[in-house]
Write a structure and sequence with these properties.
heterodimer, A: 242 residues, alpha/beta, Rossmann fold, 7 helices, 36% helix, disordered N terminus, B: 470 residues, alpha+beta, Alpha-Beta Plaits, Dna Ligase, domain 1, four-stranded antiparallel β-sheet, 31% helix
Chain lengths: 242, 470
């Protein structure tokens, strides 16, 4: 037995109640989060999921790289367990009801709010968060720059209304200070993979490079099926008769 | 007694028909057969009782509606409420007639002719074809108005004798029996000895004839006028600015709230009006998604709209009117959730609040429609409707649809995309007019930035971007 292993033993065997700095603090079951549907991301978050009451900032260069597929498993869970509505404040495009239905989000729960300008969008976001009538809020603001106090107000409102609030912002904002509970920077890897960097999280250091597999649509399923069929055919017909 | 009967022969059409099919023949359908036809349809040769298919083959431009008794009853009620200004005794005679006992209104309105003209003008303004008739008994007035003999000169009873039996409230069977006996006019029936008639037919027929001639009283149930709330407050001194206005407004809101609670009612619209000393009043409409009764929410929602409104510089009179008053069934509350400390705004309150500040057009809900055309597979829906969407057919969830839809589609250069999957041919709507028919090949593609897109190629081989998968 070497000295090294003897020294390592107490760490690795795991002493009950010993908390190490690289671990997340143990969460209480009472305020467990909404599972993101991605185990890799769940493990990195203090609530083991999206915060049930708090603001999440999603920073990305472009809309459409998979940010909705990142949220959709949790939204689908909420739409079957929570009877409050899901508010979309100032979305850049129209959320398409049949596709929402297909991923499990009940379109009847969706509340669309279109604001005329930045101030109105902020007001609508704060109202939807604060009211407690929405289980989740998805917000897009017309102006990229936000003041610190505005974000803090939203975070406070989301806490008050126990709303999982999401704010989509350009990636340039990642350097700014923010009062949001969780800040994620999203990066495109491929059509079915998304890179998530945690810029800020409660109870932990920033974390880079979480790769998430995104749900594949029926088209890719068909593609994979035809590839498998091709392989099987080749094997079947090129095999020597025996 | 002076009874005025108003018969609305076209009521069934008038409640359904829109302006765009004003010059097309219209029929009403019950049980897949024509039960009412308008003049154009009758001229085209459509007979009552013919099937819908026959009617359509006779007149290809035909428009048909279901015979909706509920809709008619509602409109009749509206007409009755409007008629209430002429007499306190207005009664409904479903499906399409009203009776007005107006002997006590004659002097006020300046005699029989003037009253009749005024009633006629009211119905014409509401857009209803009508036939009026007057007689000493309600039955006689009804028969005359139904038979269209109300304008005939001479004694009312003489005209009634000439009216066809079909204008009386008789059952089909009785009508047929009487027709077999050679009776087609009311007069022929009246000439028969009552005793004999009672023996051969049932007592109701004799009873009806007695009421017609006035030998027997014919009491009618009158309508109750709709409840209204309109209150105004004249200020002793003019008020400038919006904040001090809240004091008189609070008094009015409290008054309305008490009034509603005492009657178990709720209101869905408030109409505030602010009048200066001499000029035109400014009105402010506040709408709620759900009927409300409490003064606090009246005020808080009004305040949001008041911030945007332009009021007269000096307000002398504030008035409040409640519209769309409906009986209220208060929702039951969760016993255990009472202690819940979450923000206790309900969804309808949130919707009202957002609508008050951003305008009603800014708030919407989503619903699914059963159509293969991507643009028509969804629809707007009022956000307060909390009905669950029924599960869509399997094919709809199987198809790959983007989460973001571009409305309208954006023309693109296909060279900048890499096509992944397709084509999915959507070729539907050819049975409708050209604008709504589509023939498209949909492709899943990847843009240069890596975004997964939904493209389509139309009949002219132009490419459009229709959505992002995100």
């Amino acid at each position: 037995m070497s000295v090294n292993t003897a020294l390592e033993a107490p760490w690795q065997s795991g002493i009950d109640g010993l908390w190490r700095a690289r671990e997340l603090p143990r969460h209480q079951a009472a305020d467990a989060g909404i599972s993101t549907g991605f185990p890799a991301l769940d493990d990195a978050l203090v609530d083991h999921g999206w915060p049930p009451g708090g603001l999440v900032e999603l920073l990305s260069e472009d809309y459409g790289i998979g940010e909705l597929r990142l949220l959709s498993p949790a939204l689908a869970t909420l739409s079957s367990t929570d009877d409050r509505c899901i508010a979309w404040v100032n979305p850049p495009h129209l959320p398409y009801a049949p596709a929402l239905q297909a991923v499990g989000i009940d379109p009847a729960r969706v509340l669309l709010v279109n604001a005329n300008d930045h101030a109105e969008a902020l007001w609508a976001l704060e109202q939807t968060c604060k009211s407690g009538a929405c289980c989740a809020v998805l917000g897009w603001l017309p102006e990229p720059k936000q003041r610190f106090t505005e974000i803090r107000r939203l975070q406070f409102a989301a806490k008050q209304g126990r709303t999982w609030a999401n704010l989509f912002r350009p990636i340039g904002a990642s350097g700014e200070a923010s009062a949001a509970e969780l800040r994620l920077s999203l990066g495109y890897l491929s059509e079915d993979r998304l890179n998530v960097d945690i810029v800020k999280r409660r109870g932990g250091w920033p974390l880079r490079g979480i790769e998430l597999p995104l749900s594949v649509g029926p088209t890719q399923r068909r593609q994979r099926l035809s590839e498998a069929l091709g392989r099987w055919r080749r094997k079947r017909f090129s095999a020597p008769p025996g | 007694m002076y009874w005025l009967a108003a018969h609305f022969p076209m009521l069934g059409f008038e409640v359904q028909r829109s302006d765009e099919d004003a010059d097309r023949p219209v029929v009403l359908i019950h049980d897949n057969r024509v039960c009412q036809a308008d003049e154009r349809a009758l001229q085209a040769g459509i007979a009552l009782g013919s099937t819908l298919a026959t009617a359509h083959s006779i007149a290809p431009k035909l428009v048909h509606f279901p015979y909706d008794t509920e809709l008619q009853a509602k409109q009749l009620e509206v007409l009755a409420q409007a008629t209430y200004r002429f007499s306190s005794e207005v009664s409904l005679t479903p499906p399409d007639a009203l009776l007005i006992e107006s002997s006590r209104s004659l002097r006020l309105f300046g005699g029989r002719e003037a009253l009749r003209r005024a009633v006629s003008q009211l119905y014409a303004r509401l857009g209803h074809a009508h036939r009026l008739a007057t007689a000493a008994t309600p039955m006689a007035a009804l028969i005359l108005s139904r038979a269209g003999l109300g304008d005939h000169p001479g004694e009312a009873m003489v005209n009634v004798r000439a009216a066809p039996l079909a204008a009386m409230d008789l059952s089909e069977k009785e009508l047929e029996r009487l027709a077999n006996m050679g009776m087609t006019k009311v007069g022929q029936l009246l000439d028969l000895p009552m005793g004999e008639l009672g023996k051969r037919f049932n007592v109701e027929l004799v009873d009806a004839l007695d009421r017609l001639t006035g030998r027997r009283a014919d009491p009618r149930e009158t309508i109750a006028p709709a409840e209204r709330f309109h209150s105004r407050l004249h200020l002793l001194e003019p008020i400038r600015g919006k904040d001090p206005l809240l004091f008189p407004m609070r008094r009015l809101a409290d008054e309305l709230s008490r009034w509603l609670k005492a009657r178990c009612l709720g209101t869905r619209t408030l109409i505030w009006s602010y009048a200066p000393f001499a000029d035109q009043a400014v009105t402010l409409d506040v709408r709620f998604a759900q009927p409300r009764t409490d003064a606090k929410s009246f005020l808080s929602l009004t305040q949001l709209q008041l911030d945007r409104a332009e009021l007269p510089e000096e307000v002398m009179t504030v008035s409040l009117q409640a519209g769309q008053i409906t009986p209220l069934t208060p929702a039951s509350q969760d016993l255990l959730a009472l202690a819940d400390d979450r923000g206790n705004t309900s969804q309808s309150e949130l919707v009202d609040r957002l609508a008050a500040k951003l305008g009603t057009g800014a708030i919407a809900g989503l619903g699914i429609a059963d159509d293969h055309r991507p643009e028509l597979a969804w629809r707007w829906q009022a956000p307060s409707e909390r009905r669950r969407t029924e599960a869509p057919p399997e094919s709809a969830t199987e198809a790959n649809r983007p989460l973001w839809l571009l409305d309208p589609p954006r023309p693109v250069n296909v060279k900048r995309f890499r096509l992944l999957d397709g084509p999915e041919r959507i070729d539907v709507g050819w049975w409708e007019d050209d604008a709504r028919a589509l023939e498209r090949d949909y492709f899943v593609a990847v843009a240069q930035s890596g975004t997964r897109c939904w493209l389509y190629r139309d009949r002219e081989r132009r490419w459009y971007l229709h959505g992002y998968f995100s």
